[in-house]
Design brief:
Four Helix Bundle (Hemerythrin (Met), subunit A), 53% helix
Length: 170
């Protein structure tokens, strides 16, 4: 596996810097799990009947970044990238036409937009938008949730990568 440089989160930073550091660390971990694989390998499902793939995880997390930071925190009126009411699992679904280059570009754009949406806000600032349950969230809650979301899916990514080429690691 190609090991990409990941920045270890600080052990002495302020709360905001520490939360941002852990989120970035988990973002980098996901992309590291995908490094060095072909589009075909990135579309390889775990084990039947599951259709979960590494590329599907990255697509999902692009939509999750978009939802929590842009739609909920910043209150932007946006459609999802990959899923819809008619296809609620569309973010996880990949086809032979789904490419890593496009998926990675979308994910990177959403991470950059998420950083912009969070910039200049304090951890106690409340969201301008609402969750699907009509709740308001603090930025602290959103960042903490995103760390949890990435950590959980990085565990899935570990298993998927091991299935593809036997590689395991952090």
């Amino acid at each position: 596996m190609t090991i990409l440089a990941r920045t270890e989160p600080s052990t002495t930073a302020t709360e905001r810097a520490m939360l941002d550091g852990w989120l970035d660390y988990h973002r980098e971990t996901l992309i590291t799990k995908c490094a060095g694989l072909s589009d075909e390998q990135l579309r390889t499902a775990s084990v039947e009947p599951s259709t979960l793939t590494l590329m599907g995880l990255v697509r999902h997390l692009a939509d999750v970044e978009r939802w929590w930071f842009r739609q909920v925190m910043a209150g932007e009126d946006l459609d999802a990238l990959y899923y819809s009411d008619e296809d609620p699992d569309g973010d996880f679904r990949v086809s032979d036409e789904t490419t890593w280059d496009r998926t990675l570009a979308d994910w990177r754009a959403e991470v950059a937009a998420a950083r912009t949406a969070a910039a200049g806000r304090g951890l106690d600032d409340l969201s301008e938008g609402k969750t699907s349950g009509n709740r308001t969230c603090s930025l602290r809650w959103i960042i903490t949730h995103m760390i949890e979301e990435y950590a959980r899916h990085n565990g899935h990514a570990d298993l998927l990568r091991e299935r593809i080429d036997g590689v395991t690691g952090e």
